[in-house]
């Protein structure tokens, strides 16, 4: 239950404006780290008694952390789409980890069957049309990198990342 709660919980934004020697004219660095499958307190900087996260602790000490993030749906795919777009799942169209396929066909069984690809691709196509903060930053000249789990097709084409 709280595995996806932490998806929104742990976004770290590191601002170069607070760095020594940063020029007031230079744009801030933005680093967003989203971790999945952890409870909200599973980090050293949140005083977990046994889990050590020294590198994340250092980032958190120098940054802004969002410790009151909430997700409108307890699933990773739709939560990530909400973070990226700022929209609710019913607005961006990603309402679950897999699409509903008529006839009781499971998504696992349909994933590699060409007759069902429409259901998977239509969700990705709709997501690709939504505004998102990655495209906004890339349009301002930022380099953006996506690594790890990504559900919405090609991260460069679908979300506007410059690297993946």
Q: How would you explain this protein's 3D organization?
A:
- This protein has 164 residues and is mainly alpha-helical.
- It is 34% helix and 2% strand.
- The chain has a two-stranded antiparallel sheet.
- The longest helix has 12 residues.
- It is globular, with a radius of gyration of 18 Å.
- The two termini are 29 Å apart.
List its traits.
8 helices, two-stranded antiparallel ribbon, mainly alpha, 164 residues
Which regions have little confidence, pLDDT < 50, spanning 5+ residues? 1-21
Order of helices and strands: HEHEHHHHHH
Question: What portion of the residues fall into strands of 2 or more residues?
Answer: under 5%
Q: Give the structural class.
A: mainly alpha
Output mean pLDDT: 82
Tell me about the largest β-sheet. 2 strands, antiparallel
Distance between the termini: 29 Å
CA-atom Rg in angstroms? 18 Å
Query: Please, how many helices?
Result: 8
Order of strands in the sheet with most strands: 1-2
By DSSP, the count of extended strands is 2
Broad shape: globular
Please estimate the helix content.
Answer: 25-40%
